[in-house]
Amino acid sequence: MNKYQLPKLPLPLPLSGSQAGSFTEYTVTTRMPNIAHLVIQENNFSQVINHKLEQLSADLQSGYLQPLSNDNAIDFEDWQTYIKPYLNQRWLDIPWFVAETYFYRLILNLTNYFLPGEYQYLDPFLSQKQKSLETSIDSIIYLSSYLEKWLEEPQKQSNSSQLPLISALYFSLWGNRVDLSLWSASEDNRSNFDIQQQLNHILVDDSLAVMELLTQSQNNQIDIIVDNAGFELICDLCLVIFLLDSGFASQVNLHLKPHPTFVSDAMIKDVQYTQEFLSTANHDHVKSFSNRLSKNLAAGKLVLKEDYFWTSPLAFWQIHPSLKNELANSNLIIIKGDANYRRLLGDLHWDYTTNFTDIVTYLPAPMVALRTLKSEVAAGLKAEVIQELTTIDPKWLTNGQWGVIQLVNVDNS
Ligand code: F6P
Ligand code: MG
Q: What is the pLDDT of residue 177?
């Protein structure tokens, strides 16, 4: 008997790098080696470590997986189990989600992240994350001004206050366009966006249903499975502050990664860095944003959590029971970004028109995914929409210019 609650549909095959001409192949053979080189360039690791990173970069193209040396990390034993079936296989041939999550875990292993010494807990992507924040200061000011405006409106009982929630959801969605594994922080101007222009780029929009859901109950607990640090985190924190300070939520839990991964993914320390960054800003609205953030953190209304499930190669339906039970208390789980979405769908080759709710049947609470498309994984799209997109934007699945807001409403009362 399977101990997990699987999707009700038969599971298709996983994406993998061996699929010729796919974005997956391009990622394993080109993007991941580039990321390994970036780690060398942007840090001052020893020659021995840099040599190991070079080797990893070369292996990705056609070489085999290397084992993990014991680095005493909490998840070491788990990783031994996860990669055992794949150790004699090429990076290209194993499921893509395993390849990517293991690649990032291996970078930490090779750079002595978990071992006592000069590199312990040194985030190899730190400079990328910080740059992403520093280069988006204008957008942060813009967003902070919006936040103040939204919060001046009456609370959720009134109709006019309902639009700000939807706008905050849109900002959080489009914040996901910024992903440092796809674009380096220095060439980034994607945080300058016009929300109205982006409306046509939302392929499924359940934001109204999300608003209705949150209006139905009081003292909502909201759980956000966070994605990227930098500007996306600012957008998410803006949503959080709006939810808390407008009364849509009485508690928000942010679920963060326990170690660096996927270049830009946020950890607890990245939220803390962001808080410090905001607190030094010389602008009234940003100061107010920062004060609201600090107040909610101090009051325990905004809680920062981490769990090794979020850096594992497991599909969402393989979530461990204690985390699932924790999420069962939520009135709404918000799942951010592309990689978290891939985990939701198990990173499998679903037909893109498959009903999203027929796959995501295993969650203990209502869930909304806010995701811009950066990989060849999707569900819940209309056939005619897919046909049109293929004509107007052949790269629509991976260029991060199209988004979805997809709700699965589970009755957990
Ligand atoms: O597919 C491209 C990619 O870089 C993947 O590696 C990963 O799925 C994703 O994008 C990361 O994006 P996000 O930060 O939105 O999860
Ligand atoms: Mg990410």
A: 84
